[in-house]
Design brief:
By secondary structure, the chain is of the alpha/beta class. It contains 13 helices and 13 strands. It has an eight-stranded parallel beta barrel, surrounded by seven helices. A three-stranded antiparallel β-sheet has the order 5-6-11. α2 crosses α5, α6 runs parallel beside α7 and α10 runs parallel beside α11.
């Protein structure tokens, strides 16, 4: 990352952190939506990804052509507010959602906490989103203005009061506009959701989604809190029913954190997940060989982190919390390192 981008974001971060975390998050999305459409050059300047850099090294993964290996993780832009903005920043892909069939408000606020000393976040959002139909409309409206090779994935889940039938319902709603579907069975903020990581139940669920959206590649987002044996069993079973796996979601484990708010309930993301992500990626690559694509998600806070994930066996990487602490220049670092 260039020195001036690093200095500029360090100067701006105290002001950003003075505001409520969720409020400034939504403000950022709204600004990016505006700049992405009207001032894309400003987005490229902020991220350090030139128009040539973004598509310099395309890659074929899960049957799709990505203009680069670096994407935005699910949860940052649940409702597709700033799709064009993410493309303007130079990402190779975006994973929108998690989206549910019906709109829902999510858990009560406050539900997003910064842990600055740990370069981490704790969230208990609870799949707050405007619903699958609304997201499908936003993707459809943005499509004509997106660059070649910019892939749009949709992460789907169930409503808090729903059941497994919510997954095929959400899949049908976005099937015509999504390039791939990510199946979220690992959020810690929806009661009972992680029970779907049981290999038998997961196979049944994937069969239901496959029937509802037969043309879309399916990837499964797993928890970092799985035991090695449990994750190995799941990955072995996925090779015949899915095209990829996202490793991983947020964790409920709190080990070695220094921030005063570390005991908040919810899922932890950010730098503490880095070692877990690399270990899970390497393990999945050994077990799944080349039969599953692997998306590394969690703890990627530098270009070196992104490169390490690729070296460990990932095909793609996703950014999220790292940008909160490092700024948009992280995108450029990651793209150039992958």
């Amino acid at each position: 990352m260039s020195a001036w981008r690093r200095i500029a974001y360090r100067a701006a971060r105290p002001l950003l952190f003075a505001f409520d975390a969720e409020a400034i998050h939504h403000t950022t999305l709204d600004l990016l939506a505006t700049f992405g459409r009207r001032l894309p050059a400003l987005c490229r300047l902020a991220s350090g990804v030139g128009t040539g850099d973004a598509a310099r090294d395309p890659v074929e993964v899960i049957g799709l052509r990505f203009r680069n290996r670096v994407g935005l993780g699910a949860g940052f832009d649940k409702d597709g507010v700033a799709i064009e903005g993410w493309a303007s920043l130079g990402f190779g892909f975006v994973e929108l959602g998690t989206v549910t069939p019906r709109p829902q408000a999510g858990n009560p606020r406050p539900r997003l906490t910064r842990l600055p000393r740990d370069r981490a976040l704790i969230n208990r959002m609870g799949f707050n989103n405007a619903g699958a139909e609304a997201l499908a409309q936003r993707i459809d409206a943005a499509r004509p203005r997106l660059p070649d090779g910019f892939v749009v994935g949709v992460n789907i889940g169930r409503n808090r009061d729903g059941d497994v039938d919510d997954y095929p319902t959400a899949a049908r709603a976005v099937a015509d506009v999504a390039d791939y579907l990510a199946i979220n069975v690992s959020s810690p903020n929806t009661p009972g959701l992680r029970d779907l990581e049981d290999p038998g139940r997961l196979h049944e669920l994937l069969a239901m989604v496959r029937e509802a959206a037969p043309a879309q590649p399916l990837v499964v987002k797993l928890s970092p809190d799985l035991t090695h044996n449990r994750r190995a069993d799941i990955v072995r079973g996925l090779t015949d029913v899915a095209t990829g796996v996202v490793l991983s979601n947020t964790t409920t484990v709190r080990v070695g954190l220094r921030s005063g708010s570390a005991d908040e309930t919810g899922g932890l993301s950010g730098a503490p997940l880095g070692p877990l992500t690399l270990g899970a990626v390497a393990e999945a690559r050994r077990i799944g060989s080349d039969r599953l694509a692997i998306v590394a998600s969690g703890g990627i806070a530098s270009g070196a982190d992104a490169a390490a994930a690729i070296e460990a066996g990932a095909d793609l990487v996703q950014l999220w919390t790292g940008m909160i602490y490092t700024g948009p220049g992280l995108i450029g670092d990651a793209v150039r390192s992958c």
